[in-house]
Design goal:
The complex is a heterodimer.
Chain A: E1 4-5, H1 10-17, E2 24-28, H2 32-50, E3 53-57, H3 63-73, E4 80-84, H4 85-93, H5 102-105, H6 115-119, E5 129-141, E6 166-169, H7 175-181, H8 190-194, H9 197-208, E7 214-217, H10 222-228, E8 234-238, H11 239-248, E9 253-268, H12 275-288, H13 291-297, E10 304-305, E11 338-340, H14 343-362
Parallel strand pairs in A: 2-3, 2-4, 6-7, 6-8, 9-11
Antiparallel strand pairs in A: 1-3, 4-9, 5-8, 5-9, 5-10
Helix pairs in contact in A: 2-13, 3-4, 7-9
Chain B: H1 3-8, H2 19-59, H3 64-69, H4 71-77, H5 90-105, H6 109-117, H7 123-135, H8 146-152, H9 159-167, H10 175-180, E1 183-186, E2 189-192, H11 200-231, H12 234-249, H13 252-263, H14 268-276, H15 291-315, H16 319-327, H17 332-360, H18 364-369, H19 377-386, H20 391-415
Antiparallel strand pairs in B: 1-2
Helix pairs in contact in B: 2-20, 4-5, 5-7, 6-7, 11-12, 11-15, 11-17, 13-15, 15-17, 16-17, 19-20
């Protein structure tokens, strides 16, 4: 929220001192470890190369609402904004984000593959430039699950073998899908079932079997804290958060990758920027989403790069020195059974199911 | 000027003008000067407070988007009977294509889709998916359209789709207010939401009830503290005052998170109770992520707002009154109840209003420690502002909340009397 000014390079300072007005751009992101990974992988090299000063604003959580307000006020102060794919689709729907042509505005892969092919299916909206693939998955306390650690998503609903509390996100997305999967619905039918009132009831009934044992979270940091304090036996959160609990804080926690839900995070450029600012934003995007830069980000955080051509370049963690590839949600060993967030379904059903979900929670 | 004053002859000021005129002029000048002095504040309040609130409240009834995006369609739908159960005729589809070609060009069709999706699930993707193909149509040459459009998305072949558009076409709507009280606007008039979607009235009730409990808890805890503050020697009471103010100066988030550490099942309180043997290890108290958690944390956070007005009122109560009562044979209790307590009521009143109004709009603490049963209506307002982007509904909820607070204030004025409130 408070814009933290990162004066990046001596070069930028010298430009300013030399009387040339320093160029500035405001980049909005999520804050914390994620912003730090972007700072190291994108912002610092970019400032060094161009002398542009980058101001960080940690407002991504409220980005859609704030962009709408800025648009109504006619004063857009952000140049590039990091949002999840579902928000990018909404911003595009509302006309608040600029449409991107991947072939002219994004860098091709080093072997000449066009950006559109390199990103492939991940270009889920006309306005969205994918950056990382992350997943929402479960972590469990290795010391609290007995001799047979869970390997199946349905362990979440199995109070008999895995007693104790679980933490789940306080919203229907993902929880409803997992509930149906564990109630005998085939993976391909989940969204068809969930589109019907009976299917929604079925999912809530399944969640009802563990309702008394659930701690509902609303911030991504909640589950790591609950796991570390032993408040819950298992809990869902973003895989990067679990990575830091396991590898950086060395807590007795392990990942349950089964039925992890893939989601995307990436950039949008707000609609209605002046030509000069638009050019600068596009220049930044061209730089920050090329193959090498996306692979670099994986040195600092365990999220998978969105370009196919970046995957072979993923190396070791910058501080811990461990190989990052096995910690990527996209690693074949982790991705045996995955689930892809259905953007269109949730764009339609979110309001309806959320009302039912909240009413069910309050019962 | 009246005849009487003329008959008596006007009284003149030193410069020869009638005294009345001269006085009026100087009073006017004084008033103007006073106005100039308060003008900066007045303008500030107007532009930073009143105008934004008014515009936010207006959103709760504003619904221009349907008419503006589909002007021809809305007009054509007027002659269609939504109760007939039949699809509208070609004229409506023709108008719809003309509207959509313009809307797709300016990309407002998806915005309308999200608006209508609040009322009817599925509208969002209907508009988004249809937009691409319909934007390429030529209204003059490509007709007739009815079948083509139903071909693009079967939803356009449902009479209900058109009924929803027609029902929500007025520029001023009561739809958001109906939604805010668990009802909805349908072609058949206002109806209750299905039972499994009713939540808002329950949340309003819970917000009011819990705010009252929190206010009550604050009164009980703050009264003895304020009494001590007001009666102890200066040196001790100053130290005590710092203890009261210290949490006040600490970040709200820090204090709320601290409660989390205290109250959770593996937290400080439970650990201590288990260690003392007062609670069995497998029956730890559940005092967070429910109403109790919210009440405890919010009572603590709002306590200074009760202590400070109480303290400043109690300080002004002359000690001689109680001494006089005692010297005439009153017991300690009588002295307190008949002499001291009535004089301290204005402080309780002021503190209660402050705490109650603050807690009714509280958001972050219930979100963190409230779990599912301890959240307030403001958490829902925040959801609609920042996640679902249903600002109309958020505005309606906010307006109702404002109305409830004003109503309670009026009731309070009738019962206790607002003159009976003092901040010291």
């Amino acid at each position: 929220m408070k814009p933290t000014k990162t004066l990046l390079t001596a070069a930028a300072l010298m430009t300013a001192a030399g009387g040339v007005s320093a160029q500035e751009m405001t980049i909005v992101s999520w804050g914390g470890a994620y912003s730090k990974s972007q700072l190291k992988a994108y912002h610092e090299p970019y400032s060094e190369k161009t002398g542009v000063t980058i101001l960080n604003d940690d407002s991504s959580a409220e980005a859609v609402a704030k962009l709408r307000a800025m648009n109504e006020a006619g004063n857009i102060t952000w140049d590039v904004v990091d949002v999840v794919a579902a928000d990018a689709i909404r911003l595009c729907d509302e006309g608040l984000a600029m449409e991107i042509d991947p072939d002219t505005m994004l860098a091709p892969a080093p072997d000449g593959t066009s950006a559109a092919d390199d990103f492939g299916d991940l270009l889920v909206s006309d306005c969205f430039i994918p950056q990382i693939v992350y997943s929402t998955t479960f972590g469990y306390r290795t010391d609290l699950v007995g001799d047979t650690p869970p390997s199946d998503i349905c362990a979440v609903f199995d109070l008999e073998n895995y007693p104790g509390k679980r933490s789940l996100e306080k919203r229907p997305i993902n929880n409803m899908e997992w509930a149906l999967l564990c109630d005998g619905v085939a993976k391909d039918d989940v969204y068809d079932v969930l589109a019907t009132p009976e299917g929604q009831e079925q999912a809530l009934a399944k969640l009802g079997t563990i309702k008394d044992n659930v701690v509902w979270w609303s911030a991504g940091a909640d589950t790591p804290q609950l796991l570390a304090d032993g408040e819950v036996v298992m809990g869902s959160t973003y895989n990067g958060r679990l990575f830091s609990v396991i590898e950086e804080q060395k807590q007795p926690v392990a990942m349950l990758w089964d039925a992890q839900v893939f989601d995307l995070d990436g950039w949008i450029i707000p609609a209605g920027l002046s030509d000069e600012r638009k050019q600068r934003a596009l220049d930044y995007i061209m730089f920050a989403t090329d193959t090498q830069r996306l692979a670099d980000q994986a040195k600092y955080i365990s999220y998978g790069p969105a370009r196919a051509s970046s995957a072979p370049l993923v190396g070791q963690h910058a501080d811990l020195g461990i190989d990052m590839a096995p910690h990527m949600p996209t690693d074949p060993a982790n991705a045996e059974n995955t689930f892809l967030y259905n953007y269109e379904f949730w764009a339609d059903y979110r309001d309806d199911i959320d009302a039912k979900f909240q009413a069910w929670l309050a019962q | 000027m009246t005849d009487a004053s003329q008959n008596a002859g006007p009284m003149l000021a030193a410069d020869g003008t009638p005294l009345k005129q001269s006085l009026a002029r100087s009073l006017r000048r004084q008033k103007l000067r006073a106005l100039m002095l308060v003008a900066p504040l007045l303008l500030f309040v107007l532009f930073s407070f009143i105008v934004p609130i008014a515009s936010m409240l207006f959103r709760s009834v504003e619904n221009n988007i349907v008419q503006e995006t589909l002007p021809l369609t809305v007009e054509a739908l007027q002659s269609w009977d939504e109760h007939s159960g039949e699809l509208p005729g070609e004229a409506v589809y023709d108008a719809f294509v003309r509207d959509m070609v313009i809307a797709v060009d300016s990309k407002t069709h998806t915005r309308l889709g999200s608006r209508l999706n609040y009322e009817e699930t599925g509208m969002s993707s209907m508009f988004r998916r249809s937009g691409r193909k319909m934007g390429k149509m030529d209204p003059e040459t490509d007709g007739p359209f009815k079948e083509q459009i139903i071909e693009i998305h079967e939803g356009w072949g449902e009479p209900n789709t058109w009924a929803v558009i027609k029902t929500h076409s007025p520029a001023i709507t009561n739809g958001y207010f109906l939604n805010a009280v668990d009802m909805r606007r349908t072609p058949e008039g206002a109806q209750s939401q299905p039972e499994d979607k009713q939540i808002l009235i329950k949340l309003f009730g819970r917000t009011l009830f819990m705010s009252l409990v929190i206010t009550g808890a604050c009164i009980l805890l703050a009264y003895p503290v304020s009494y001590l503050l007001a009666t102890l020697p200066m040196r001790v009471s100053n130290l005590l005052m710092i203890l009261v103010l210290l949490p006040f100066w600490t970040s709200l988030l820090v204090r709320t998170s601290a409660w989390k550490v205290m109250l959770q099942q593996q937290g400080v309180i439970n650990e201590t109770l288990v260690w003392l043997g007062l609670v069995a290890d497998d029956a730890r108290l559940v005092i967070i992520n429910n109403q109790i958690g919210t009440i405890i944390a919010m009572t603590h956070i709002l306590l200074p707002f009760m202590i400070l007005p109480m303290y400043s009122v109690m300080q002004t109560i002359p000690v001689t009154y109680t001494r006089a009562a005692k010297s005439m044979g009153a017991t300690n209790w009588t002295t307190f109840w008949r002499i001291y307590f009535p004089q301290s009521i204005p402080g309780i009143g002021a503190g209660s209003i402050l705490v109650f109004i603050l807690s009714i709009g509280y958001y972050i603490t219930p979100e963190i420690v409230g779990g599912t049963k301890g959240v307030f209506i403001s958490n829902r307002i925040a959801y609609h502002i920042s996640s679902s982007l249903n600002w109309g509904l958020a505005a309606a909820l906010g307006t109702i909340l404002l109305g409830v607070v004003m109503l309670l204030y009026w009731v309070y004025d009738k019962i206790v009397g607002i003159d009976n409130v003092k901040l010291g």
